[in-house]
Amino acid sequence: MKKLFGAVCALAITAGAPAFAAEKINIGAPSWTGAQAIAHLVQEIVVSRIGGEATLVPGNNAAIFAAMDAGKGDIDIHPDVWLPNQKSFTDKYVDGTGNVALSSNVYEGKQSFCVSKEFSEKAGVTSIFDLARPEIAAQMDSDGNGKGEIWIGAPGWASANVNQVKVRDYGLMPFMEPVRADQSVMTATVGDSIRKGIGYAFYCYSPHAIWFQHDIVRLEEPPFDPAMYKALQPSDDPDWFENSKVMTEDALKQVQIAYSKSLETRSPAIADLVKNIALTGEDVSNFAFEIEGGKDAADVAKDWVAANADRVDGWLGLGGGGGMSNAAILDELNALEMRLDKLKSMVK
What we know:
This protein has helices spanning 2-15, 33-50, 61-70, 87-96, 117-123, 134-139, 158-169, 183-196, 210-213, 240-243, 263-266, 268-276, 281-292, 297-307, 309-316, 326-346, and strands at residues 24-29, 53-58, 77-83, 100-102, 107-116, 148-153, 176-180, 201-206, 216-218, 229-230, 245-246, 253-260. It is an alpha/beta fold. Mean pLDDT is 88; it is low at 1-21 and 320-326.
């Protein structure tokens, strides 16, 4: 065993990286800030701690899940799967084809509609149904078309589809126009509306940087009732909008990483990392706040990994085994010895 440990250490020192440096991953990178943050975090750990290769691949939920299902390595993970929002995809690829898996570690997410605290107090807006008051809608009409605007999410978001149904079923359509636009548009508009002292309603969720950036409040909705929550997606039903019915707030979400099962054979060390990553809502909120504040996502990830070495070691199974069984450690060492022998044969 001492000989094996010595060989492994010698290889790591010679190569300047762990023995599994050849492993690689393509990371799906959806547009929202939390997903971007986690994608960069995985990239940083793979490159700086595993010594592998990691590339971020922009894409929406449908494209990322389809690529993971194909198992060819075009996209290997989705860093921020919100359930049940994306249940249509997990039903198809996790429970259906079985080619995609979910990590067991989750953090909680909460979805609502919000307005600024100042507008809420000034106009007496505390409930989603207050947006159906004509005098309130008029204060949110920025383009003069006779309706207020409510941001429901970005194009391609499953949550935006749910929110569009909510706007209809809450009786807001005669008064409010649902708007889909990039998240950055929403963030900028919230700040602009606060500076101008005007109303603006928008889909909000936590964890998210906006809770650090602006003083906002959630609008009350009817308590979650599964009997009143039928949210279909286009992948479920081409008539998803007509056949959906949502008249209740969302249940708390479970957010986790999804990965292609083919990663387990192509890059087993990275697959183990993905399975072990455990973040909190506070972690993700802090990431998002720094990124929204102008810091590069790659720098946020690099600084966090440096400051949280013990947590990262645990995810990698380091530090006296880091929770790995003796059998798992021996398997990893045997695999490393085989790779060392292969490298030696290449330099003879």
